[in-house]
Design a protein that fits this description.
alpha+beta, 10-stranded antiparallel sheet, 760 residues, transferase, Beta-galactosidase, Chain A, domain 5, 6hp_glycosidase-like_sf, 5-stranded antiparallel sheet, glycosyltransferase
Length: 760
């Protein structure tokens, strides 16, 4: 069970949710878990196939547009549909919504990388058949989506017909009632006419504004030579029909190759057909074997073993698997808030990447983590321009939501005003360096990004009464916007500025030639760096003496508290039921804000303040954001509130599987998935990455018999196994390394287990 997600539900709501849960992808290509044959007439489906970062630009319409508002936004596009296959038994079309379903199993196999539907069906006229649908999106050949359909007649079938379609004229999904989903611009692709060449049907299309191209070549074949075949092409749609005798089992395969002009340049259709030729000898079984080998390597390093709770074991594997399926693995892409599983948030990249998803890859697959940072670095010029658009004279302001670097947020109070994204990106660069020790990256990409983000903080903030203060920003809590001295923003800025100063001092001593080059490129002076250091030293971090907490911002505690106890359940999430201005006037948090800052930068305050702050903000937080539960779980672990930590963690691990937020149909909550991993590794195992080393303060939840996982640190693979009252550290790969356990330094030698007591 823990390696498989299963469902046999056929009601409309569950079908839409399962389209997300059963999506398949590889970081480049994503295909929603739609039924090949469709649903019953009138049922809705969000039928989707997506390429990471393949988008168009659409105009943003304002009633009143002011200076610096973005003119356009980027939108991930649904591309040609190659999923459709229908099965006919004589004159009856197979459908799970007609006749009698004698048995139906649907499975996502996370250890083998494919999904399947196994159906025993009786038609309205009494014909019986077993049909198995299998599909995979290849991790090895990223352009490839393959389907295999096996039809085994049981009773009364004289003829079997299989109709396959390639549809080039598609649209995006819209929902005008939900701001988290696009409400317009559904038609952004100009589809060309489908044509046939070298045994393939080929569909191409071009975006309206960005003039990006995409194509799909589709090749079908069966294991039986004796069959009739017919092909019909009308405009942007191709149909193929195979007809067989109903006397024996048949296997039908459909291999689809997708390419886009961002990665493959010109002559896409020729290249896609050429790849079909190169794969001509590969059958579905060959792709399955490649998929299994790839995933075996992934799980060998990344798996988390939980003894004592099968549901949570399933949940954590589900989350890690979908992160792998959605993360970009090339310089053109990142990982969107919904990955490649749906159209929620229009395929945009947020701070979710750096704070919630990046840590999983950093500690298990650092090559992927580095790619995410390099992708952000590739957008630095756009961030510099965005800073100028806002009115800053220097520095870089990374966009709140983007695909290729332009700001796609039209609502600046909860978008552009979240300057903390600069600190979030800087934080991830710092974390990567501390884990990897990558000096070349430190001198180049990291130095440039931290210098440019630090310059912006001097533009945003100002010195006043001996303090450096940052006004008119929004922190992570989007129910409190445009405030002065948001604690999270200020402390992340402080960290950013401190490290920029460290980089300067290190380069000045160890690599003055590189420092000179960097300073010349950025037209920076030494006086500016001294200002960074002073701003960091004098950064104002709000603190309330009476409550002994870090104030979320200058005015948060002056407001009345929202009465969460009497708010009807059907009024959550609040953002869909109350005007933003009403929310802004109350002490009510959408998600962790100050509590998140205490997790990320715990050394900037003391334990008592962290505990008092946690207790205070917990009482005013709705957790309307899926980014919230995991942080409260992690900090409850730190504070010894173990029952509460486990309860919050339980809500993160199965948030999508159980559709706890009611919107999984629009795509999976990728940040929460990363947060689930964090809840185990940063929460129960107490991992913290510090400048000196990695530190652990582990304990085992009483509900579990054991917990085991690996992390990568400085080219080493370290295994941790927790049982009641103890933890065993084992260096699996790499040379001897030193780590910290409960503030005591220990040495790990290759293959030699080290046992330590844990907190009970």
């Amino acid at each position: 069970m823990s390696w498989t997600i299963e469902s046999s539900k056929l009601n409309q709501s569950d079908l839409l949710t399962n389209e997300s849960l059963f999506f398949l992808g590889n970081g480049y290509l994503g295909v929603r878990g739609n039924f090949e044959e469709g649903y019953s007439e009138g049922d809705k489906s969000i039928r989707g196939t997506y390429i990471n970062a393949f988008h168009d630009k659409v105009d943003i319409e304002y009633g009143e547009k002011l200076h610096g508002f973005p003119d356009t936004q980027e939108k991930l596009l649904n591309i040609m549909d190659a999923q459709s296959v229908q099965v006919w038994l004589d004159d009856e079309r197979f459908s799970l919504f007609e006749g009698e379903v004698l048995d139906f199993q649907r499975k996502l196999r996370m250890d083998q990388g494919y999904s399947e539907r196994i159906v025993h069906w009786r038609s309205p006229k009494g014909k019986e058949v077993n049909i198995t649908f299998k599909r995979l999106v290849s991790f090895v050949n990223r352009e490839v989506f393959v389907q295999e359909i096996t039809v085994d007649p049981v009773k009364g079938v004289e003829r079997i017909a299989i109709h396959s379609e390639l549809e080039g004229d598609v649209s995006n999904f819209v929902d005008p009632d939900d701001p988290r989903v696009a409400s317009g611009h559904a038609k952004r692709l100009a589809a060309g006419a489908v044509y046939e060449t070298d045994g393939c049907h080929v569909a191409g299309a071009e975006t309206h504004e960005t003039k990006m191209s995409v194509c799909c070549s589709s090749k079908t074949f069966s294991d039986k030579e004796n069959h009739d075949y017919e092909s019909n092409i009308e405009g942007a749609k191709a149909q193929e029909t195979y007809t067989f005798s109903g006397e024996e089992k048949i296997t039908f395969t459909k291999r689809n190759v997708y390419m886009d002009s961002m990665r493959y340049g010109q002559n896409l259709e020729k290249k896609a057909v050429q790849l079909q030729g190169e794969l001509a000898d590969d059958r579905f079984e060959d792709f399955l074997e490649e998929q299994a080998r790839y995933l075996n390597d992934f799980w060998k390093t990344s798996d988390i073993l939980i003894d004592g709770d099968d549901d949570l074991q399933q949940g954590i594997r589900f989350n890690m698997y979908h992160l792998l399926q959605s993360v970009g693995k090339d310089p053109k892409s990142n990982i969107a808030a919904k990955g490649l599983s749906g159209e929620g948030y229009e395929g945009h990249y947020f701070w979710d990447t750096e704070i919630y998803m990046f840590p999983f890859f950093l500690m298990t697959n650092p090559e992927i983590a580095k790619n995410l940072l390099l992708h952000r670095h590739s957008l630095l010029d756009s961030a510099r321009q965005r800073a100028k658009d806002i009115g800053h004279t220097r520095g870089a302001l990374f966009p709140w939501r983007t695909i290729t670097g332009g700001e796609s947020s039209a609502f600046f109070p909860a978008g552009t005003a979240q300057y903390h994204i600069n600190g979030d990106i800087a934080y991830s660069y710092i974390q990567y360096y501390m884990v990897s020790g990558d000096e070349d990256f430190f001198r180049n990409e990291m130095a440039e990004v931290l210098f440019e983000t630090s310059r912006l903080w001097l533009e945003v903030g100002h010195f006043h009464n001996g303090q450096f203060r940052i006004d008119s920003v929004t922190g992570p809590d989007e129910y409190t916007c445009i405030v002065n001295n948001n604690y999270y923003t200020n402390v992340m800025a402080k960290n950013n500025l401190l490290w920029a100063g460290k980089i300067y001092d290190h380069l000045k001593k160890e690599d003055p030639e590189r420092l000179t080059e960097l300073m010349n490129d950025l037209e920076a002076e030494e006086e500016e760096i001294e200002m960074w250091k002073e701003a960091a030293e004098k950064m104002f971090l709000p603190y309330n003496e009476e409550l002994k907490i870090n104030e979320q911002d200058d005015t948060f505690l002056q407001k009345g508290k929202w009465d969460l106890d009497t708010t009807p359940k059907d009024k959550y999430p609040l953002l869909l039921n109350y005007h933003p201005l009403l929310l802004y006037r109350y002490q009510v948090c959408k998600q962790a804000d100050t509590v998140l800052a205490h997790f990320l930068l715990e050394d900037f305050t003391d334990q008592d303040t962290i505990e008092h702050s946690y207790n205070y903000y917990e009482a005013v937080t709705t957790h309307d954001s899926s980014l919230s539960f995991c942080v409260f779980s992690i900090m409850a672990s730190k504070l010894g509130q173990k029952e509460k930590a486990y309860d919050y963690f339980s809500k993160t691990s199965r948030l999508d599987i159980d559709n706890l937020h009611g919107n999984t149909k629009d795509g999976l909550h990728m940040a929460n998935m990363g947060g689930t991993w964090m809840g185990i590794v940063y929460g129960f195992a107490g991992l913290r990455v510090k400048e000196s080393n990695v530190h652990f303060s582990p304990y085992l939840p009483e509900q579990w018999g054991s917990l085991e996982f690996n992390i990568r640190y400085r080219n080493c693979l370290i295994n941790l196994k927790l049982t009641e009252g103890k933890v065993v550290y084992t260096l699996v790969e790499g040379d001897a390394v030193r780590i910290f356990h409960m503030d005591s330094e220990i040495s790990l030698d290759p293959g030699v287990p080290v046992e330590k007591r844990t907190s009970l």
